[in-house]
Amino acid sequence: MSVERQPLTGSQLRPVPLTAVTFEDAFWRPRRALLRAVSLPAQYAQCEATGRVQNLHRAAGWLDQPFQGRYYNDSDVYKWLEAVAWLAAEAPDVTLAQMADGVIAAVAAAQQPDGYVNSYFMFERAGERWQDLANKHELYCAGHLIEAAVAHYRATGRDNFLRVAIRLADHICDRFGPAGQAAVPGHEEIELALVALYRVTGNGTYLAQAQRFLDLRGRGLVGGRVYHQDHLPFRELPAPAGHAVRALYLNMAAADLLAETGEPALRAALERQWWQMTTRQMYLSGGVGARAGGEAFGGDYELPNGTAYAETCAAVANVLWQWRMLQLDGAARYADVLEQALYNGVLAGWSLDGLGYFYDNPLASDGRHRRQPWFECACCPPNLARLLAALPGYCYSTSAEGLWVHLYVAGRVTTPFGRLRLETNYPWAGELTFTWETVARPGRVTLFLRLPAWCAAEDVELVVGDGQRLAVADPALQVRPGTLALRRAWQPGEQVRLALPMPPRLVVAHPHVTSLTGRVALMRGPLLYCAEAVDNPGVDVRDVALRAAPAGMVAVAGLPGMVGLRVPGVVTRPGAEWQGALYRAAAPARPGERYHLTAVPYFAWANRDPGRMQVWFRLADRGDWDKAD
Amino acid sequence: MSVERQPLTGSQLRPVPLTAVTFEDAFWRPRRALLRAVSLPAQYAQCEATGRVQNLHRAAGWLDQPFQGRYYNDSDVYKWLEAVAWLAAEAPDVTLAQMADGVIAAVAAAQQPDGYVNSYFMFERAGERWQDLANKHELYCAGHLIEAAVAHYRATGRDNFLRVAIRLADHICDRFGPAGQAAVPGHEEIELALVALYRVTGNGTYLAQAQRFLDLRGRGLVGGRVYHQDHLPFRELPAPAGHAVRALYLNMAAADLLAETGEPALRAALERQWWQMTTRQMYLSGGVGARAGGEAFGGDYELPNGTAYAETCAAVANVLWQWRMLQLDGAARYADVLEQALYNGVLAGWSLDGLGYFYDNPLASDGRHRRQPWFECACCPPNLARLLAALPGYCYSTSAEGLWVHLYVAGRVTTPFGRLRLETNYPWAGELTFTWETVARPGRVTLFLRLPAWCAAEDVELVVGDGQRLAVADPALQVRPGTLALRRAWQPGEQVRLALPMPPRLVVAHPHVTSLTGRVALMRGPLLYCAEAVDNPGVDVRDVALRAAPAGMVAVAGLPGMVGLRVPGVVTRPGAEWQGALYRAAAPARPGERYHLTAVPYFAWANRDPGRMQVWFRLADRGDWDKAD
To answer: The pTM is what?
Structure first.
């Protein structure tokens, strides 16, 4: 059980575990402190207030009361446990640890002699176990139990929870293994959890079971619906489809299996889905799943803003899928999407005070969409929490050649090659200074640095050692698009300085996104921006057209420490000709007035006075500028 | 029972019944012949093939077999009966009459001693009657039975079906009247049906029961959901909301009640909803209900094209609601919307061969959306059929002052003022010649002609009598916006010639429809146009930008008798810069190539080779034209 297996044939990179990484930055470190001090205690309180904890106590035989809430509510507690575990790897927390230990004890006590554990299917419902795999989320809950137990074991070294997970996994492998029932779950999750369990235990049965669940999918065992990704075998799927979170959890499992097996058909299927999703089905926020109906991926270029579903959980899943793809071969495009989804699609789901969450994340709002402290279906809050708790583990990898830096967070990482320090004010500024504080082995080691896709390479500055300026476009340096490879025998104290210019920029969407014709969005570095009514009094943000002119940086009231943007534009209010009309004959636009729009990071929206928010702005015609001048 | 009551206090117009109208035109007459010869027999065959007819035979005790299909399937048969009845008013049809008589006999035989009739809640389900008003559509089915029976009585003069309806209505009034259960139906329909029954029977109990159902709504009796319009009392509703068909059926009933009672609060509520819907929630096709989820109205300016739900039934309901509003005071804006929804939103739901139907009507498609011969939930086909069957009754009204012409269909109408003939090739041409073939009474009579809102009034020509040219802008003539009032002592043979210019025109949407920024649609007269791949080979219609320049009229292969449009534009295919990209930095557009787009009436789309269809086109920048020139 102490074997920590690493992927064998399919993967070129190995994650640097979160225990080897410290954050010392001004962006993520305070957010993770908030997570620890505010969000996770509040989430536990919600789990208690809504009976989620009591359901487990009841299953343990400690309480005699009815089950409360939905049949999948155990999973929220498990995701919360996973978050607590990852944070414990950073520093112990007595309060959270007591809460967690109590839950783990209840789960252990609730476990049946055969290994089964699920607080819903107990007592009067014990006979219903494994009867409705399409809808009842038992394997989904089991997967989150296993993921939480693996995290707990990896973070704390204690195996009490892991032993529960192993007994449960053994029960599942027994029931659904080759000698058992041919079945797949309605909500994917168990597959990737079994791979994770395999990686800490070395028990190949779990890997084989994960493979079996993947291989049996798409054959109608849960009804053959697109919603469940059961309409086609995985290797034949042309695009992500159906319920977005489920689809990406399936992709995560497939990438995990690919890492273990190197199976070309899995690689081809994942690549196909990746290109399809990132070029046709993803919001500029990195959010995915355009449709509220079925919480599902939309069709090609179907990316409405006001009704964007873009579930927080789907953005979390996007990050976790990208991470797995990134490990396969280190291609920077995966890290680009990971960063895009993390800083925008995921982070928007969490309020700045740590107490509110979005379930869906529209890219335009009339101001009535506000974060909530909890949901009846509360998947998103603990999902976001477990991702941010594990974030130090998503920044670095190693390969035989050296150390890969994917996400730029100020702090230190300790690796077999030595300890590297990164100083930066990223994502607010693009200046990065890397210092090899120690060098662990002689000889040449490559430092792989990501050149983000949002960055204009010709303006990047790279200085190595005592002042040697390197051209990032040099193919010997940029070994693959977006990956700078600095190979040398590093000396302790040696520095690399990388300056990524971060001018505010206007972004357009593919012309076939017909709902975004003539519209631009604002970005700076990895951050997507939006405009809120609170910063633009007296103006309806829908009436503002931006000019293709440089924007300035400003401080914004109520968002301390953040970089706001001041963007030149034109405001044209609908005139009397629109009174009582929705359509009318096309006519030349009326002249507008000059206006400077204030924009703020999208992730920070809806934290102040409610009001209209918009991400995509009309691009002013040249004519509009002339008239306004 | 022979009393035909007309609305009393709330309505200024009275419909000219369809029995007084003959269509002699090249547009609707052949379509109604197709309805009679092809669509209605095929619909009956579908009702037999899917067990809908047999359900009624079973309920009559003629068959011993299980109920088939959905619990509301009777309603489809009733709507089919209504269509057959209205067509019978035009001319008898032995085949259809035999089918109808068989169904009516079954319904009569199935009726219970207490008047109840519904083929689902029979035998083993008899105990479930009236137990789930929110979901089980019993009152909805009853309403369609009553509407069909009223149509049958009005069209044929026979009362055998009406007597069934009366017994059913009496049962409903007994059960849900003031001494009975306080309840409302989950799907509105019974309310307007009871008013219709009141109007042919004079029995005020039915009117009172309709009023009671309206008044009790919005008080949580079916759960208080927006979906059911049960979240607010009707008089407080700020906007149409929830399930679009239900919402508009409720509005139809409210308009009917307003016509009877003149209640100011009902008028205010209806006017509020009308302005809200037509200025924020209606497609250019006249379709409504943007969202597939809940088949519901969307929010303000939420009008996506590719995912537009715009159920055919909702467009039918829009026509029927507008007709009722129009009767209240004759305001032309209601007739404008009626015409818009009829020629576009409704008609698109029906294939040119009479055998296929759309349930939802998107305004953009990748070509995979095709009409179907029937649906498991088959509300739309017979709903469209009953509207088109009754269409002659939606063209004319009378008031104390004279005759109102709302829809321009070549043919004759016989009224208390005399017989009027209309010659025109509308909607393909705007020249209208009215001739008083007979004049029934001496003295001055007003001929009210609608000046459509799509028409540029300054270019309209109006010639009366032997050549007197009138200025339509004259307030003495255009008594209200869109209504020309020609008051004189007409002589037999006297003519009025009205020429409504129909140049193809580009239409834009309100700037707050942010998904339509920079986009234009094509219209000509009342018809919305679209472009299909079949007429534009080698071009992706998404890549075409239209120029603000005159379009020409062309014949289109496969659409005989229709006016197609040839529209100057520019085609700009996404270049290599979009390879593998969904978003990129804004940059000046590449030059396009001149292209002439072929557009066809929207109602005729998807009748030829499948392919991409689009309604809203990018408007070419001036710069695009220069580059392409």
So the answer is: 0.95
